[in-house]
């Protein structure tokens, strides 16, 4: 089955949207730790430890509810999904062009 450019673009966009949505709560905590906008768990003062990560996730849920883990996700998706989809499309096109120029067939057809 041959995939069209639109198919490749959509696959790239969906893959990045899923990856971003799944990892977003941890990215948020990473940002909080990096820029120091938090109070460390008094029981464990080690910055970046698993206990502090879980503590910060818990604090975010307590303060904003479960949807607080995804606060700001829309902006992040706008920032990353289009870029990733375009990069995926360009990669596929460049790979196909390279194989054509070299006179090789792709190992698997799209």
UniProtKB/TrEMBL annotation:
<protein>
    <submittedName>
        <fullName>Solute carrier family 25 member 17</fullName>
    </submittedName>
</protein>
<keyword id="KW-0813">Transport</keyword>
<dbReference type="GO" id="GO:0015230">
    <property type="term" value="F:FAD transmembrane transporter activity"/>
</dbReference>
<dbReference type="GO" id="GO:0044610">
    <property type="term" value="F:FMN transmembrane transporter activity"/>
</dbReference>
<dbReference type="GO" id="GO:0015217">
    <property type="term" value="F:ADP transmembrane transporter activity"/>
</dbReference>
<keyword id="KW-0812">Transmembrane</keyword>
<dbReference type="GO" id="GO:0015228">
    <property type="term" value="F:coenzyme A transmembrane transporter activity"/>
</dbReference>
<dbReference type="GO" id="GO:0005778">
    <property type="term" value="C:peroxisomal membrane"/>
</dbReference>
<keyword id="KW-0472">Membrane</keyword>
<feature type="repeat" description="Solcar">
    <location>
        <begin position="3"/>
        <end position="97"/>
    </location>
</feature>
<dbReference type="InterPro" id="IPR052217">
    <property type="entry name" value="Mito/Peroxisomal_Carrier"/>
</dbReference>
<keyword id="KW-1133">Transmembrane helix</keyword>
<dbReference type="GO" id="GO:0051724">
    <property type="term" value="F:NAD transmembrane transporter activity"/>
</dbReference>
<dbReference type="GO" id="GO:0080122">
    <property type="term" value="F:AMP transmembrane transporter activity"/>
</dbReference>
<dbReference type="Pfam" id="PF00153">
    <property type="entry name" value="Mito_carr"/>
</dbReference>
<dbReference type="InterPro" id="IPR018108">
    <property type="entry name" value="MCP_transmembrane"/>
</dbReference>
<comment type="similarity">
    <text>Belongs to the mitochondrial carrier (TC 2.A.29) family.</text>
</comment>
<dbReference type="InterPro" id="IPR023395">
    <property type="entry name" value="MCP_dom_sf"/>
</dbReference>
<dbReference type="GO" id="GO:0005347">
    <property type="term" value="F:ATP transmembrane transporter activity"/>
</dbReference>
<keyword id="KW-0576">Peroxisome</keyword>
<keyword id="KW-0677">Repeat</keyword>
